[in-house]
Amino acid sequence: MSNQAAGKATMIVHRGEELEPAIRSALASLLATEPSPAEVDVALNQLRLTRDSLSLTFHPSASKIAARTNTKQWLLVAASFLVFCMCGIASTEGWAQIAKDLSAPINEPQPLSTLAEKTANSLQPPNEMGFALRLVLIAHVTLLTLGLSGMAATWLIAILSYFLEHWRKSRENSIAHSTQRYLLFYSTLLYAVGIILGAVWAQAIWGRLWSWDPRETFGLFTIAFAVLWMRSIDWRVQSEPERRYHSATSASLATIAIGSIGLMFVLGNRYAAAVHSYGLAALTLPNFVFGLFAGCWAAIWISFALRTRFYRRISKV
Amino acid sequence: MTWQAIIDEHGEAIFRVAYRLLRSVHDAEDVSQEVLLEAFRMPEMPDASLLRRIAAFRAIDRLRRRVVTVALEEDISQRECLSTEKVVENEENADLLRNAIARLPQQQSRCFWLRYVEGLTNQEIAVAESISESTVSTALCKARKNLRRTFTNKLESAHE
Predict the structure, then answer these.
(1) Which tens digit of pLDDT belongs to each residue from A234-247?
(2) Cα A96 from chain centroid (whole Å)
(3) Residue from the list A16, A64, A67 with its beta carbon closest to the beta carbon of B116
(4) Which residues in chain A have Cβ-Cβ distances shorter than 8 Å to B93?
(5) Residue A90 CB neighbours (<10 A)
(6) Are A311 and A60 in contact (CB under 8 A)?
(7) How many contacts, defined by CB atoms under 8 Å, are there between A and B?
(8) How far apart are CA A143 and CA A200, in angstroms?
(9) Neighbours of B85 (CB within 10 A)
(10) CB-based contacts of A45: which residues, under 8 Å, 6+ apart?
C-alpha cells in the first residue's frame, strides 16, 4: 500500500469508529484502488473527445444531455416529419378508402381496402365481415409493418453508430446499444402481436388459426431470427471482458439478421399461395417504401414512448 | 467555462472517484462523462467536493445496475494475478464492499458514503440530501446493519 493509500486508510479509521473492523478495512482498501497514470491520461483524452459526438445520438433524452446541440436534433426530427407528411399526403387515396370502409354500415356491401379486397371477395362476402374483424385485419397489417420497420430501424442504428464511430471518433455507443435493444424488443413484440391478431382473424373467417402457408411460415422464421438477433446483442456484450459495445460486431450481426429477415420477407411473398395470395397487387414499390418509412418513424417514437421499467425488468431476466 | 477547462480542472478527480467504486476504466470513463455533462448543464459550476459527490452517487447507481446483470466474481477472477496474498485479500474485501454497497437501498448507500468517506456530519448530510436528521441516522444504522450482515455471512462461509 502506498503512503497516500495508508493516509486514506487512517482517515477512514478515524471517521468510522463505529464501523466493524472488517468493514473499515474493506472501505480503506476500496479507497486505495487507483487507476494507473496511463489509464488516467487515456480517460481524460477520451473525455475531451466525447462532447461533440453527443449531438447526433438517437437517445430520447439526448436533448437533455447535450443542451447546446438541440438544433441539429430538431432539424432531424422536423425533416423526417416533413417527409412523413408528404408520404402521407401522397397516399391519401389509401387512407380515404380505409376511412370509407370503417364508416360504412356493416350490412351494406362495400369494397374493402386494397389489402383485404381479394380475400374478402374470394373467401367471404364482404358484408359478413363485422366491424371488429375489419379492425383486427387492419391492425394485423399495421402491426406487421411496424414490426418489420422497427427491425429495419434497428439495423439502421447499428450501421449509423458504426460509421459515426469511425468518422467522428465518437463514443455514444452505450446509447446506441440500449436503443437497439429496446427498439428490437418492441418490434419483435409488435410483430408477434400482429401474427396473433392474424390468427384470430383467420379463426373467424377461414375457420382455422394456422395453416402453414408460406407467408405464415416465413413470418414465424422472422420472429425466430429477430429473437436470435436480440439475444446475440446481449451475449456479445456480456462476453466482452469489459462489457463494451463493439459497433463493428454489432453492425455485422445486424446486417446478417436483417438480411435473413429480408430474405424471409421476399420468400414469403414469392411463394405466397392459396390463403395468403391477396395483397400482392397492393405491394408496389411506392407503397412498400412508404410503409417501411412510416413504420420506421412510428416504431422509433413508439418505442421511445414505451421505454419503461417494464422493459428493463424483462431485459434483466 | 469551456468543456476543455472543466476537464482539465475536475476530470481527473472525478475519474478517480468513479474508478475506485467501479474498478473498470471504461465504466469510470462513462460515469465521468455523465457527471461532467451534468455539471456543464448546471447554471453555475459546482465546486470540487460536490462534483466528487455526484460522481460517487452516479458510480454507485451504475454499480447497482451491474450487480443485477453481471456477477462480480468474474471481476475478481480477472485480477488474481496480483503478487501477494495480502493484496488479493484486500482486493476481495473491497469487492465485497462494492457488492454490498450496490445492494443497499439508494438512500442508505448515499448516507453511508457521505458519512464515512466524505466525512460529513449527520446534520450536513440532512441538508445535502434534503431529508430530516432522524432519517439520516436511521438510514446509517440500517446501512451498518446490512453491511455487517453481508460481511459476517461472507466471513462465516470462508471459515467453513
Answers:
(1) 665 555 544 456 67
(2) 29
(3) A16
(4) 22, 25-26, 29
(5) 11
(6) no
(7) 108
(8) 14
(9) 8
(10) none
Task: Tell me whether residues B97 and A50 touch, CB distance under 8 A.
Answer: no
Segment A135-154, tens digit of pLDDT: 888 888 888 888 888 898 88
CA distance B135 to B125: 10
pTM as predicted? 0.43
Q: Which three cell numbers stand for residue B86?
A: 495480502
Q: How far apart are CA A171 and CA A70, in angstroms?
A: 18
Q: Which three cell numbers stand for residue A142?
A: 399495421
CA distance A59 to A54: 10
Spatial contact of A188 and A116, defined as CB atoms under 8 Å apart: no
Check whether A112 has a pLDDT greater than 70: no
A31 → closest Cβ in B30, B33, B117: B117
B41–A67 C-beta distance less than 8 A: yes
Kindly state the cell numbers that stand for A13.
479509521
How far is the CA of A310 from the CAs of A313, A316, A317, B39, in angstroms?
Answer: 5, 10, 11, 30
